[in-house]
Amino acid sequence: MKFNKLTSWIGVALVLGIGTGYVCHAMAPDAAAAKEIGAYFTAVADIFLRLVKMIIAPLVFATLVGGIIKMTDGRSVGRIGARAMGWFVAASLISLFLGLMWANLLHPGTTMQLALPDAHAATNLKTSSLNFKDFIVNIFPKSIFDAMASNSVLQIVVFSLFFGFAMRAVREQAGEAMASMVDGLMHVMIKITDYVMLFAPVGVFAAVAAAITVQGLGVLGTFAKFIASFYLGLSSLWLVLILAGYVVLKGRIFRLLGLVKEPTMIAFSTASSEAAYPKTMEQLKRFGVKSEVTGFVLPLGYAFNLDGSMMYQAFAVLFVAQAYGIEMSFATQLSLLLFLMISSKGMAGVSRASLVVVAATLPMFGLPEAGLLLIMGVDVFLDMGRTATNVIGNSLATSVIAKWEGKLGPEETESAREAAPAVPGHPPAGANASARIRVAEPVA
Question: CATH no. for residue 217?
Fold first, then answer.
């Protein structure tokens, strides 16, 4: 399915999902019935997400190991990693600052006149595992099979780094054949990704229909100012990130934004970063980013560079404080920014990560954890925006680092993709004899 055609179908599915969900919610006699109807849509959406999750681990492994093998020297990995982490830290600080700024300017928590939950009510979110010590330990896998089974991207990255450098060390003995196998695995996984993405419109339709069926559109009216304020903040974050990318990528950034439109729509409609990961990788390749950069930076970004989620955490904490009439001084907010900067790095692999981070942060600053109950009902609509922002942020980060490293080539054309060899190292079908000879010749 061509890029523009698939994008159009996803857009149609998004609209149909909203309409279908609205009708189902209106026809349901009560909330329990609406939840039961929504469960059927959720089942379809879960099937699509399971299809995506089954390709994440081998795709990350193959692209990262293949990228390390292609790097000219081991120092390239350290340099790319350092540049990536520098970008991630800067983007995280900007995201948190913008979240605090918009919450202070718009005061969404003081003007909504909502009925406040009991300050001692429980949210039932597990926050005990969210600490820096456990995060450091959990970076390292106790079993690569366990890490792949649970799609723990950061653990897969660690194992892939060891595996890739080991292959470089033994390449003269046995690594060459394995390198070809890894390269072949990457091409196979990309093809499987194409097959899975054919079901993206169905998954998008079901995910949106499920959310609207259960929640209804009325809840959007009740929380209109809060949701609008948050999306205004996200828009400003997009602008800042795009301007930063423009400084490095110049006019090509607009083509990048066009290419990542599809994975962004998938992320928005499914509220799942994993659902957008394979297509994001594919579109970055089309943009010209070398596979060794994409395979290394993108997985790190999904663990350390969740720009939309960072903004949400700062925004949500101040919203709760405003709703309960608790004043937070500038110094306290600065401490909050630094605390979120550190604690949020442990959210990779945590279920409902952003909510968990906020739930763990509120008591630290004397705020009632029950305040989170105010926004849990509309969190799915907020999650859509922050997940889409995460895709944009990681796409920009990967492209910028590729440019800095001199590994951003010209955009891959449609004809070049169709002529690409099915098996690495072999010419495409129909290539002439001289082309075959040139492929076989050693490179000086």
Answer: 1.10.3860.10
The set of residues, in sequence order, having a beta carbon less than 8 Å from that of 221 and lying 6+ positions away, is none
Sequence-separated contacts (24+) of 19-23 with Cβ below 8 Å:
20/205, 20/209, 20/212, 20/213, 21/208, 21/209, 21/210, 21/211, 21/212, 21/213, 22/212, 22/216, 22/217
Look up tokens 């600490």; give the residue: 131
| pLDDT, mean over the chain | 80
Residue 426 located in a structural domain: no
Q: For residue 378, what pLDDT is reported?
A: 78
The residue range of the domain holding 168 is 3-73+88-412
pLDDT tens digit sequence for 239-264: 999 999 999 999 999 999 999 999 99
- Which residues make beta-bridge pairs with 289? 408
Could you tell me if residue 183 is inside a domain?
Answer: yes
Please give the radius of gyration of the chain, using alpha carbons only, rounded to the nearest integer.
Answer: 23
Q: pLDDT tens across 39-61, in order? A: 999 899 889 888 888 888 888 88
Looking at per-residue pLDDT, the higher value among 365 and 413 belongs to 365
At residue 431 the predicted structure's pLDDT band, cuts being 50, 70 and 90, is very low
* Structure-block tokens of residue 232: 């205004």
- The domain total for the chain is 1
CB 252 within 8 A of CB 63: no
- Pairwise CA distance, residues 376 & 372, whole Å: 6
Mean pLDDT of 408-418: 66
Residue 130 lies inside a defined structural domain of this protein: yes
- Is residue 101 a part of any domain in this protein? yes
